[in-house]
Amino acid sequence: MGFTDILIIVINFAGAVAVFLFGMKLMSEGLQKFAGNKLRLAMGKMTGSTTRGIVTGAAVTTLIQSSSATTVMVVSFVNAGLLTLSGAVAVIMGANIGTTVTAWLITLLGLGESGGAFSLPMLFGAIALAFLFSKRDRLKSIGEFVIGLALLLVGMGFLQQAMPNLEQYPDALEALATLSGYGFWSILIFVVVGALLTCIVQASAAVMAITLVMCYNGWIGFDAAVALVMGQNIGTTITANLAAMVANTNGKRAARAHLVFNVVGVILTLIVFRPVLNLIADMTVGLTGSNPYTAVGAEGYKPTAIPMALSLFHTFFNVVNTLILAWFIPVIIRIVEWMVKEKPEDEEYTYRLKYIGGSWTNTPELNIQAAEREIAEFSKRVLRMYTFLPALRTAKDDDEFDATEKRIEKYEEITDRMEMEISQFLTHISEGDMSHEGSQRISAMLCVVDNLESMGDTIYQIAATRKNKREAAVHFDQHLNDNLEQMTRLVQHALDIMNDNLNGDYNRIDLTDATAAETEINQFRDQLREEHLNALKKGKYDFAIGNAYSSLYALYEKLGDFVINVSEALTIKFK
Question: Which of 103, 269, 373, 406 is least buried, going by the fewest C-beta atoms within 10 A?
């Protein structure tokens, strides 16, 4: 086999894998856009029993055709505090079951000549659907899914064509025979190879497709193929662990739980390796009339036997391991708690995006939930910053005042950076192919982020006004201080309502309380302004006091405007 022959094989093979992966991507995106907000809500409510978590993980992974995307979301939700660690382990177990659907699609539709027979009519119908109903998002999303499935089948056909006949290359055949001739050590070698391939390709479905084609063409035997499948289950955990690199302690633990579950599952299967394979072989004989151990070309050999046996094993492996290990979730949690130690730290002045730092997925729709949690954290920062203001008035000395003022200044810098990075993230994901609902949601969140940053600026302006007042030795009487304290309480109430809205369902926001709070702020501002003008006319206090006082209540009222803008932005975009 010359260099040119090898290069042609590699190019054809890489092209076939690219078509397959692109089909998988379209399938996943189409289904996610079709599910829309319901998918995110389902993922956001994955608490409760172990059974519910497993079923949810399996269902979501079946829908989006990506266990990696599901586990990345799980890490994100654990990181955000939306999902407990035990719930995360259950969902990850379910995701492993859901990912077996891909192997069955390939086995039943994509191997042999049937793949081409299905793919072209599907592709034609899906393109017609996408173009004829291009203005109807849900139908267009269905069309994208079908196009993706058709391209997946086309990619499988290309993979089969790109796979060379080993009889023409005796050296390669001899190398594979040698690699398979070390008994149980060969099984371990193929487990490692499967894990490494999946780490490199970052798509267990693609490695599964390659394994199925290799079996179908007789490159490897049933034992080696099963070992590759087990290795894929270990290799697929790399995505979640990469996403967890910037996560908090619980996010890291969720990713490690995925690794522990899959590694333990492989170890358990290796212990009973031969009995399990004999059981799968018997099931395959019953379904296809052929034993997966039958040599290529021998009497009774059917090329569909090994792919069928592999799909059975893949499902058996994940379902049985889940049924067994679901009883040991507390043990798994103790293991990952030992692996990832708690590191207490004061994060007040530590700037780090918590939920979108490393958990980006290839599909824009899946990033929206992480962005919403980051915005909720942004709101939390702003509310915390606001609580520092009263300490400026009650400071006993300059050192205490300066410390509080510096604290507010630091928070203002943090809010500026949060606004910039969240906006960049939202802009980035909006550039992808996204549903109309997703685009609306991003527009609302961009507006919210802008107003939250403006709140940080306004709080800092209030602090600066207090500082100027102190330096100028301007003093308010008790009545003026009481008025500003009342304004502070009114704005605090409005901020609490806004924060509740940002932590709730954007589609169900009721503006009644937010509007009432804003009205109360405006009415009290009008009352203070009228009293202030009368006081100036009567000479109750001088211009310096009046200027500082009017500036402060005006800034509080301005802060209230930004607060109501947040809730209004959400309702305008979603109703």
Answer: 406
